[in-house]
Write a structure and sequence with these properties.
Distance between the termini: 70 Å
Structural class: alpha+beta
Number of strands: 3
Largest sheet: 3 strands, antiparallel
Radius of gyration: 22 Å
Number of helices: 3
Strand order of the largest sheet: 1-2-3
Length: about 130
């Protein structure tokens, strides 16, 4: 059995790779901002999730009900520090909601936005 295989060469341009990475980052940022704005139209409750029965560390127990669905999760990365105001809920509830619970929605929306950006990169929008 003779192997007559030739090695083929793939050339990648650093400039093109940087441009594509920038487009992917841009689409992920747009996707995150869209989902963040949508998540603000829901009811979010962040309460103490520590139990007296098992003496666990105090952490935030988050429940969300709104446009992105219903979700309940524990945020054990941030220790419980009293009632959370709006700005604290951003990193306690909204960011984990988008990146943990709605990851597939985030990924699919990022892919769609990336494809839209690639198709419309030669066009400019002018309003008269």
């Amino acid at each position: 059995m003779s192997e007559n295989s030739e090695k083929k060469e793939i050339q990648l341009d650093k400039k093109e790779l940087k441009k594509q990475a920038f487009l992917i980052g841009k689409s992920m940022l747009f996707s995150f901002l869209i989902l963040f704005i949508i998540s603000l139209f829901g009811e979010t409750i962040a309460r103490n999730g520590a139990s007296q029965w098992n003496y666990s560390e105090p952490h935030y127990e988050v429940s969300y009900e709104g446009v992105l669905g219903e979700a309940e999760f524990d945020n054990k990365w941030i220790p419980y520090n009293g009632h959370a105001n709006f700005f604290q809920k951003i990193y306690i509830a909204y960011i984990p909601l988008i990146l943990k619970v709605n990851f597939m929605t985030f990924f699919i929306l990022s892919l769609v936005i990336y494809l839209i950006i690639r198709k419309t990169k030669n066009y400019t929008i002018k309003i008269k």
